[in-house]
Structure formats: structure tokens, C-alpha cells
Amino acid sequence: MAVDRPPIPERPLLRGERIWLRPIEERDLASYVAGVNDSEVGGMAGYPWPQSQSQATAWWQKVMEGWGRDGFYFTVCVLGEDRFIGTTWLKELNLVQGSAELAIFMDHEHIGGGWGADAQRTLLRFGFGQLGLERIYLTAFVGNRRAIRSYEKIGFLHEGVMRHAWRGLDGFQDGVLMSMLRDEWRAGEAG
Q1: CA-based Rg of the chain, rounded to a whole angstrom?
Q2: How many CB atoms sit inside 10 A of residue 47's CB?
Q3: 87/74 Cα distance (integer angstroms)
Q4: Ranges of residues in the chain whose predicted pLDDT is under 70
Q5: How many CA atoms lie within 13 A of 33 on its CB side?
Q6: Within-domain flag for 4
Q7: 5 in a domain, yes or no?
């Protein structure tokens, strides 16, 4: 039975408790590149090498061509502001299978203060609610304990370890695969 849902706006704006998400724009790319090139931010988020502004621009142009078909790429902003403080995505979007991969990183000022958790909850509400996804998953470097604890608090469950899935400064490292199902999200929202 098909579920009637309102159409997804071409460029959705999503509001959390302390943040809002807007589509990533070209003006955000300098801040994005700074995060990617920061070993604590980008390194822990899985970026294996630095990125130039022109590489980021090429990436941005590609993802904007697939906006809504292949994924949704958002800039995280503090409510009432428009400055980039991080980014979060639903990528590898597969509406047939009802799944997508969540990715996130926050700038230095906004790590550990609940900003990323609010952004993730907002994106989950969009993915499970408006898009009707069944499963949202993510991967993390096994050494990124802070991020893994955050994902666990939000309700992501461990599915397994991906051996030597990440190349870090010390060579190959394991990664973790975590996911949340729509019913788990609903139970968390109700609780």
C-alpha cells in the first residue's frame, strides 16, 4: 500500500532544536575544505588526504547534480545564523531498498556540544519521516570513540566491524558499521 507523503521540496530546509540544515552551497566550500584538511575533524571523519578548493568545487558540482536522486547534502548552521559549522549528508540514497548512509562532521568549535547530535536527529527525522526510509547506516573509524558514543546515544546499533576499512596515519584501521531502522527511530522519538 502506497503511503501518501507531501513532496520533498527541491531544496529542503530542516530545523532542529539548536540548528538548522540547509543545502550545502558553493559559499560553504572554504569552511568545508578547512574541516576536511583538519586532522581532528576531517581525519576522524575518514578523509584520507587533504583536499583543495578546486577539488571541493568539483565534488560539490557533482553532488548537486544528483541532489535528491543520489543523496541530500546539508550545511549545519546554528538557529538564527547562516554560518557553516558542519555538514551532514544522506548519501548512497536508495529509495527502492529504503536505505541511505549518514555522514557528518562538525567544525572544532562545535565538537562535543550536542550540535552534531541535533543535526543527526534532524536528518534522521527527514530520512525516516519525509523520505520514508527503512534503514539509515553509517561507518566510523574504530578509534573515533567520541563519534561512536554519540551515534550510540542517538540510537544507532552496531552491526559489525569492517576490518582494515580505514587508512589512517598509522596504516589500516578497522571501522564500525552501525545502523538504525525506522521502527527503532520511531520508538526513540516516542520515548
Answers
A1: 16
A2: 16
A3: 6
A4: 1-12, 39, 41-46, 48, 169, 191
A5: 16
A6: no
A7: no
The beta strands (E) that lie in the chain are given as 14-15, 19-23, 72-78, 86-94, 99-106, 135-141, 157-168, 171-181
The pLDDT tens digits of the residues spanning 166-179 come to: 877 678 889 999 99
User: CATH number, domain at 141?
Assistant: 3.40.630.30
Domain count, the chain: 1
Domain membership of residue 8 (yes or no) is no
Tens-place pLDDT, residues 124-169: 999 999 999 999 999 998 988 989 999 999 999 999 999 999 877 6
Note whether 116 and 45 are within 8 A (CB): no
- Whole-model pTM over 0.90: no
Helix (H) or strand (E) holding 33: helix 29-36
